[in-house]
Protein backbone atom coordinates (compact mmCIF):
# COMPACT_ATOMS: atom_id res chain seq x y z
CA UNK A 1 0.00 0.00 0.00
CA UNK A 2 1.63 3.25 -1.16
CA UNK A 3 1.50 6.54 0.74
CA UNK A 4 -1.17 8.12 -1.47
CA UNK A 5 -3.54 5.16 -1.13
CA UNK A 6 -2.92 5.01 2.63
CA UNK A 7 -3.77 8.71 3.06
CA UNK A 8 -6.90 8.30 0.95
CA UNK A 9 -8.13 5.36 3.05
CA UNK A 10 -7.36 7.15 6.32
CA UNK A 11 -9.29 10.25 5.20
CA UNK A 12 -12.23 8.18 4.03
CA UNK A 13 -12.41 6.39 7.37
CA UNK A 14 -12.14 9.73 9.16
CA UNK A 15 -15.05 11.21 7.22
CA UNK A 16 -17.29 8.17 7.65
CA UNK A 17 -16.57 7.63 11.32
CA UNK A 18 -16.82 11.33 12.17
CA UNK A 19 -20.31 11.39 10.70
CA UNK A 20 -21.29 8.32 12.72
CA UNK A 21 -19.98 9.75 15.99
CA UNK A 22 -21.69 13.10 15.30
CA UNK A 23 -25.09 11.79 14.21
CA UNK A 24 -25.46 8.46 15.99
CA UNK A 25 -23.20 8.49 19.04
CA UNK A 26 -23.62 12.11 20.05
CA UNK A 27 -25.26 12.98 23.38
CA UNK A 28 -24.47 13.32 27.03
CA UNK A 29 -21.45 11.63 28.50
CA UNK A 30 -22.00 8.10 29.81
CA UNK A 31 -19.41 6.78 32.22
CA UNK A 32 -18.42 3.13 31.91
CA UNK A 33 -18.02 2.88 35.68
CA UNK A 34 -21.39 2.88 37.41
CA UNK A 35 -22.11 3.44 41.10
CA UNK A 36 -20.23 5.53 43.61
CA UNK A 37 -17.08 6.42 41.68
CA UNK A 38 -13.73 4.73 41.18
CA UNK A 39 -11.22 6.47 43.49
CA UNK A 40 -11.50 6.15 47.29
CA UNK A 41 -11.33 9.50 49.13
CA UNK A 42 -12.35 9.14 52.79
CA UNK A 43 -14.58 7.50 55.41
CA UNK A 44 -17.02 9.72 57.29
CA UNK A 45 -19.99 9.21 59.70
CA UNK A 46 -23.29 8.23 58.15
CA UNK A 47 -25.79 11.08 57.64
CA UNK A 48 -29.52 10.55 57.12
CA UNK A 49 -30.11 10.45 53.38
CA UNK A 50 -26.80 8.81 52.47
CA UNK A 51 -26.85 5.73 50.25
CA UNK A 52 -26.87 2.73 52.59
CA UNK A 53 -24.89 0.76 50.00
CA UNK A 54 -21.91 3.01 50.81
CA UNK A 55 -21.75 1.90 54.46
CA UNK A 56 -18.36 0.48 55.44
CA UNK A 57 -19.39 -2.30 57.76
CA UNK A 58 -15.85 -3.01 59.03
CA UNK A 59 -15.29 0.58 60.16
CA UNK A 60 -18.84 0.79 61.54
CA UNK A 61 -18.25 -2.32 63.67
CA UNK A 62 -14.95 -0.99 65.05
CA UNK A 63 -16.18 2.47 66.07
CA UNK A 64 -19.71 1.47 67.05
CA UNK A 65 -21.54 3.84 64.69
CA UNK A 66 -22.33 3.68 60.97
CA UNK A 67 -19.71 5.16 58.62
CA UNK A 68 -19.74 5.35 54.83
CA UNK A 69 -17.07 5.32 52.15
CA UNK A 70 -16.70 8.40 49.96
CA UNK A 71 -15.39 8.02 46.45
CA UNK A 72 -14.05 10.72 44.18
CA UNK A 73 -15.79 10.60 40.81
CA UNK A 74 -13.46 10.57 37.84
CA UNK A 75 -14.93 11.22 34.40
CA UNK A 76 -11.83 10.96 32.23
CA UNK A 77 -11.27 7.42 31.01
CA UNK A 78 -8.52 5.64 29.15
CA UNK A 79 -9.84 3.58 26.22
CA UNK A 80 -7.46 0.86 25.07
CA UNK A 81 -8.08 -0.75 21.68
CA UNK A 82 -6.58 -4.25 21.49
CA UNK A 83 -6.79 -5.16 17.79
CA UNK A 84 -6.07 -8.57 16.27
CA UNK A 85 -4.01 -8.14 13.07
CA UNK A 86 -3.37 -11.83 12.42
CA UNK A 87 -3.45 -13.36 8.95
CA UNK A 88 -7.22 -13.93 9.21
CA UNK A 89 -7.75 -10.16 8.91
CA UNK A 90 -6.34 -10.18 5.35
CA UNK A 91 -9.46 -11.96 4.11
CA UNK A 92 -12.22 -9.91 2.50
CA UNK A 93 -13.95 -8.85 -0.69
CA UNK A 94 -13.06 -6.61 -3.60
CA UNK A 95 -14.53 -3.70 -1.66
CA UNK A 96 -12.51 -4.01 1.56
CA UNK A 97 -10.56 -6.40 3.74
CA UNK A 98 -11.52 -7.34 7.29
CA UNK A 99 -8.51 -5.34 8.43
CA UNK A 100 -10.02 -2.18 6.92
CA UNK A 101 -13.37 -2.92 8.58
CA UNK A 102 -11.64 -3.35 11.94
CA UNK A 103 -9.80 -0.06 11.39
CA UNK A 104 -13.12 1.69 10.70
CA UNK A 105 -14.74 0.22 13.82
CA UNK A 106 -11.71 1.21 15.92
CA UNK A 107 -11.80 4.74 14.46
CA UNK A 108 -15.49 5.08 15.33
CA UNK A 109 -14.81 4.12 18.95
CA UNK A 110 -11.73 6.35 19.12
CA UNK A 111 -13.46 9.45 17.71
CA UNK A 112 -16.37 8.90 20.10
CA UNK A 113 -13.92 8.68 23.01
CA UNK A 114 -12.01 11.87 22.17
CA UNK A 115 -15.33 13.72 21.80
CA UNK A 116 -15.87 12.91 25.48
CA UNK A 117 -12.36 14.09 26.40
CA UNK A 118 -10.98 10.57 26.94
CA UNK A 119 -7.58 9.19 26.00
CA UNK A 120 -7.27 6.44 23.38
CA UNK A 121 -4.45 3.92 23.01
CA UNK A 122 -3.74 1.00 20.70
CA UNK A 123 -2.28 -2.46 21.19
CA UNK A 124 -1.91 -4.33 17.88
CA UNK A 125 -1.27 -8.03 18.37
CA UNK A 126 -1.10 -11.40 16.61
CA UNK A 127 0.53 -14.31 18.42
CA UNK A 128 2.89 -11.61 19.73
CA UNK A 129 2.70 -7.90 20.53
CA UNK A 130 3.19 -6.04 17.27
CA UNK A 131 2.79 -2.38 18.24
CA UNK A 132 1.81 -0.32 21.27
CA UNK A 133 0.60 3.27 20.92
CA UNK A 134 0.33 5.06 24.31
CA UNK A 135 -3.05 6.61 25.19
CA UNK A 136 -3.38 10.24 24.17
CA UNK A 137 -6.06 12.73 23.16
CA UNK A 138 -6.70 14.52 19.89
CA UNK A 139 -7.76 13.90 16.32
CA UNK A 140 -4.19 13.58 15.05
CA UNK A 141 -3.59 10.79 17.55
CA UNK A 142 -6.67 8.90 16.32
CA UNK A 143 -5.49 9.29 12.72
CA UNK A 144 -2.16 7.81 13.75
CA UNK A 145 -3.97 4.80 15.22
CA UNK A 146 -5.89 4.32 11.96
CA UNK A 147 -2.64 4.53 9.95
CA UNK A 148 -1.04 1.91 12.18
CA UNK A 149 -4.00 -0.43 11.73
CA UNK A 150 -3.93 -0.08 7.93
CA UNK A 151 -0.19 -0.04 7.22
CA UNK A 152 1.50 -1.96 10.05
CA UNK A 153 3.48 -4.92 8.72
CA UNK A 154 3.04 -7.70 11.24
CA UNK A 155 5.37 -10.63 11.84
CA UNK A 156 3.01 -13.08 13.50
CA UNK A 157 0.28 -15.15 11.84
CA UNK A 158 -1.76 -16.55 14.71
CA UNK A 159 -3.81 -15.00 17.52
CA UNK A 160 -3.14 -14.91 21.28
CA UNK A 161 -5.78 -12.76 22.94
CA UNK A 162 -4.75 -13.78 26.47
CA UNK A 163 -1.21 -12.45 25.91
CA UNK A 164 -2.62 -9.15 24.63
CA UNK A 165 -4.84 -8.76 27.71
CA UNK A 166 -1.91 -9.51 30.02
CA UNK A 167 0.18 -6.89 28.18
CA UNK A 168 -2.54 -4.24 28.58
CA UNK A 169 -2.98 -5.04 32.27
CA UNK A 170 0.77 -4.62 32.75
CA UNK A 171 0.90 -1.29 30.90
CA UNK A 172 -2.23 0.55 32.03
CA UNK A 173 -2.13 1.35 35.73
CA UNK A 174 -5.41 3.25 36.14
CA UNK A 175 -8.85 1.75 35.56
CA UNK A 176 -9.60 1.78 31.87
CA UNK A 177 -11.95 0.48 29.21
CA UNK A 178 -10.45 -2.36 27.17
CA UNK A 179 -12.03 -3.13 23.79
CA UNK A 180 -10.81 -6.16 21.85
CA UNK A 181 -11.37 -6.35 18.10
CA UNK A 182 -10.75 -9.80 16.72
CA UNK A 183 -12.20 -12.23 14.21
CA UNK A 184 -15.44 -12.85 16.10
CA UNK A 185 -17.88 -15.53 14.86
CA UNK A 186 -20.68 -12.95 15.08
CA UNK A 187 -19.09 -11.09 12.15
CA UNK A 188 -18.39 -14.17 10.01
CA UNK A 189 -21.00 -15.39 7.50
CA UNK A 190 -22.26 -18.82 8.54
CA UNK A 191 -21.35 -20.19 5.10
CA UNK A 192 -17.70 -19.24 5.64
CA UNK A 193 -17.80 -20.59 9.19
CA UNK A 194 -19.35 -23.89 8.09
CA UNK A 195 -16.83 -24.48 5.31
CA UNK A 196 -13.90 -23.44 7.53
CA UNK A 197 -14.96 -25.81 10.31
CA UNK A 198 -15.46 -28.69 7.85
CA UNK A 199 -11.97 -28.09 6.43
CA UNK A 200 -10.46 -27.88 9.92
CA UNK A 201 -12.05 -31.09 11.18
CA UNK A 202 -11.03 -32.86 7.96
CA UNK A 203 -7.43 -31.66 8.35
CA UNK A 204 -7.17 -33.05 11.91
CA UNK A 205 -8.86 -36.30 10.89
CA UNK A 206 -12.04 -35.81 12.90
CA UNK A 207 -15.05 -37.53 11.33
CA UNK A 208 -18.24 -35.61 10.64
CA UNK A 209 -20.98 -36.05 13.22
CA UNK A 210 -22.97 -34.50 16.05
CA UNK A 211 -19.84 -33.55 18.01
CA UNK A 212 -18.54 -31.33 15.20
CA UNK A 213 -22.01 -29.87 14.74
CA UNK A 214 -22.34 -29.09 18.45
CA UNK A 215 -19.04 -27.18 18.36
CA UNK A 216 -20.28 -25.26 15.31
CA UNK A 217 -23.55 -24.33 17.02
CA UNK A 218 -21.64 -23.19 20.10
CA UNK A 219 -19.42 -20.93 17.96
CA UNK A 220 -22.46 -19.42 16.23
CA UNK A 221 -24.42 -18.83 19.44
CA UNK A 222 -21.65 -17.86 21.88
CA UNK A 223 -21.10 -14.23 20.69
CA UNK A 224 -24.80 -13.46 21.07
CA UNK A 225 -24.91 -15.13 24.49
CA UNK A 226 -21.94 -13.01 25.57
CA UNK A 227 -23.64 -9.84 24.34
CA UNK A 228 -26.80 -10.72 26.28
CA UNK A 229 -24.89 -11.40 29.49
CA UNK A 230 -22.69 -8.33 29.05
CA UNK A 231 -25.78 -6.10 28.74
CA UNK A 232 -26.95 -7.39 32.12
CA UNK A 233 -23.56 -7.06 33.80
CA UNK A 234 -23.26 -3.42 32.67
CA UNK A 235 -26.16 -2.56 35.00
CA UNK A 236 -25.10 -4.97 37.75
CA UNK A 237 -24.62 -3.32 41.16
CA UNK A 238 -21.30 -4.78 42.33
CA UNK A 239 -21.60 -2.95 45.66
CA UNK A 240 -24.01 -5.68 46.80
CA UNK A 241 -21.16 -8.21 46.48
CA UNK A 242 -18.91 -5.97 48.55
CA UNK A 243 -21.62 -5.66 51.20
CA UNK A 244 -22.00 -9.45 51.32
CA UNK A 245 -18.25 -9.90 51.79
CA UNK A 246 -18.23 -7.28 54.54
CA UNK A 247 -20.94 -9.29 56.32
CA UNK A 248 -18.79 -12.43 56.16
CA UNK A 249 -20.43 -14.32 53.30
CA UNK A 250 -18.21 -16.82 51.49
CA UNK A 251 -17.65 -16.44 47.72
CA UNK A 252 -19.82 -19.50 47.05
CA UNK A 253 -22.71 -18.22 49.16
CA UNK A 254 -22.38 -14.73 47.64
CA UNK A 255 -22.69 -16.22 44.19
CA UNK A 256 -25.60 -18.50 45.13
CA UNK A 257 -27.66 -15.99 47.14
CA UNK A 258 -26.86 -12.69 45.38
CA UNK A 259 -25.12 -12.96 42.02
CA UNK A 260 -27.11 -15.87 40.58
CA UNK A 261 -30.59 -14.47 41.42
CA UNK A 262 -29.65 -11.11 39.90
CA UNK A 263 -28.36 -12.57 36.62
CA UNK A 264 -30.73 -15.55 36.41
CA UNK A 265 -33.08 -13.78 33.99
CA UNK A 266 -30.18 -12.94 31.66
CA UNK A 267 -28.95 -16.55 31.80
CA UNK A 268 -32.40 -17.86 30.91
CA UNK A 269 -32.75 -15.34 28.09
CA UNK A 270 -29.31 -16.14 26.70
CA UNK A 271 -30.07 -19.85 26.91
CA UNK A 272 -33.36 -19.46 25.04
CA UNK A 273 -31.60 -17.37 22.40
CA UNK A 274 -28.95 -20.06 21.97
CA UNK A 275 -31.62 -22.79 21.68
CA UNK A 276 -33.54 -20.78 19.08
CA UNK A 277 -30.39 -20.14 17.04
CA UNK A 278 -29.39 -23.79 17.27
CA UNK A 279 -32.82 -24.94 16.06
CA UNK A 280 -32.64 -22.52 13.16
CA UNK A 281 -29.02 -23.21 12.18
CA UNK A 282 -28.71 -25.23 8.96
CA UNK A 283 -25.61 -24.14 7.04
CA UNK A 284 -22.99 -25.04 9.66
CA UNK A 285 -24.92 -28.22 10.42
CA UNK A 286 -25.01 -29.26 6.76
CA UNK A 287 -21.22 -29.05 6.35
CA UNK A 288 -20.41 -30.91 9.58
CA UNK A 289 -23.23 -33.36 10.34
CA UNK A 290 -22.23 -36.21 8.02
CA UNK A 291 -24.71 -39.09 8.15
CA UNK A 292 -26.32 -37.94 11.40
CA UNK A 293 -29.65 -36.09 11.58
CA UNK A 294 -30.92 -32.92 13.23
CA UNK A 295 -34.31 -31.20 13.00
CA UNK A 296 -33.19 -28.52 10.46
CA UNK A 297 -31.57 -31.16 8.24
CA UNK A 298 -34.67 -33.35 8.50
CA UNK A 299 -36.97 -30.49 7.55
CA UNK A 300 -34.74 -29.55 4.61
CA UNK A 301 -34.77 -33.15 3.38
CA UNK A 302 -38.55 -33.30 3.62
CA UNK A 303 -38.93 -29.97 1.79
CA UNK A 304 -36.93 -31.29 -1.15
CA UNK A 305 -39.74 -33.76 -1.80
CA UNK A 306 -42.42 -31.10 -1.38
CA UNK A 307 -44.48 -29.87 1.54
CA UNK A 308 -46.46 -32.67 3.20
CA UNK A 309 -48.32 -33.03 6.54
CA UNK A 310 -45.24 -34.42 8.27
CA UNK A 311 -43.47 -31.06 7.92
CA UNK A 312 -46.46 -29.24 9.40
CA UNK A 313 -46.57 -31.69 12.30
CA UNK A 314 -42.85 -31.35 12.98
CA UNK A 315 -42.99 -27.55 12.84
CA UNK A 316 -45.97 -27.57 15.21
CA UNK A 317 -44.07 -29.75 17.71
CA UNK A 318 -41.08 -27.39 17.62
CA UNK A 319 -43.33 -24.35 18.09
CA UNK A 320 -45.25 -25.94 20.97
CA UNK A 321 -41.99 -26.96 22.67
CA UNK A 322 -40.65 -23.40 22.49
CA UNK A 323 -43.92 -21.95 23.82
CA UNK A 324 -43.86 -24.40 26.75
CA UNK A 325 -40.22 -23.55 27.59
CA UNK A 326 -40.88 -19.80 27.46
CA UNK A 327 -44.05 -20.13 29.55
CA UNK A 328 -42.29 -22.19 32.24
CA UNK A 329 -39.38 -19.76 32.37
CA UNK A 330 -41.75 -16.79 32.62
CA UNK A 331 -43.76 -18.34 35.46
CA UNK A 332 -40.63 -19.31 37.39
CA UNK A 333 -39.33 -15.77 37.08
CA UNK A 334 -42.71 -14.35 38.17
CA UNK A 335 -42.77 -16.58 41.27
CA UNK A 336 -39.26 -15.52 42.27
CA UNK A 337 -40.23 -11.87 41.96
CA UNK A 338 -43.23 -12.45 44.25
Layout of strands and helices, then pairs:
Blueprint: H1 3-23, E1 39-45, H2 57-63, E2 67-72, E3 78-84, H3 98-115, E4 119-125, E5 129-136, H4 139-151, H5 161-171, E6 177-181, H6 190-203, H7 210-233, H8 239-246, H9 251-280, H10 283-288, H11 295-304, H12 309-337
Parallel strand pairs: 3-4, 3-6
Antiparallel strand pairs: 1-2, 4-5
Mean pLDDT: 76
Gross morphology: flat
The stretches of 5 or more residues where confidence is low (pLDDT under 50) are: 23-37
Radius of gyration: 25 Å
Number of strands: 6
Which H/E pattern describes the elements? HEHEEHEEHHEHHHHHHH
Task: Describe the sheet with the most strands.
Answer: 4 strands, mixed
The SS-based structural class is alpha/beta
Order of strands in the sheet with most strands: 5-4-3-6
Span of the ends, CA to CA: 63 Å
Beta-sheet strand percentage?
5-15%
Helix content: 55-70%
**SS summary, helix count:** 12
Summarize the structure.
The chain is of the alpha/beta class and 338 residues long. It has helices at 3-23, 57-63, 98-115, 139-151, 161-171, 190-203, 210-233, 239-246, 251-280, 283-288, 295-304, 309-337, and strands at 39-45, 67-72, 78-84, 119-125, 129-136, 177-181. Helix 1 (3-23) packs across helix 3 (98-115), helix 3 (98-115) runs antiparallel to helix 4 and helix 9 (251-280) packs antiparallel against helix 12 (309-337).
Tell me what the structure shows.
This protein is an alpha/beta fold and 338 residues long. Helices cover 57% and strands 12% of the residues. It contains 12 helices and 6 strands. It has helices at 3-23, 57-63, 98-115, 139-151, 161-171, 190-203, 210-233, 239-246, 251-280, 283-288, 295-304, 309-337; strands at 39-45, 67-72, 78-84, 119-125, 129-136, 177-181. Strand 4 (119-125) and strand 5 (129-136) form a beta hairpin. Helix 1 (3-23) packs across helix 3, helix 1 (3-23) packs across helix 4 and helix 9 (251-280) runs antiparallel to helix 12 (309-337). Mean pLDDT is 76; it is low at 23-37.
Amino acid sequence: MNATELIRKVRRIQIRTSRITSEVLSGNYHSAFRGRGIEFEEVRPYIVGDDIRSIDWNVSARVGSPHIKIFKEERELTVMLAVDLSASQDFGTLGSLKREMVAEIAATIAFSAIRNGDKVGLLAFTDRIERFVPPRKGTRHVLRIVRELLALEVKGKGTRIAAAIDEVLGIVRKRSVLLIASLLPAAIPVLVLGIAMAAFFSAIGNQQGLFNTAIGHAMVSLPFVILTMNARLETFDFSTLEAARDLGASPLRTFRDITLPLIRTAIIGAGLLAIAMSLDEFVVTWFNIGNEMTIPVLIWGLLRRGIDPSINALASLVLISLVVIVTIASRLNHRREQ
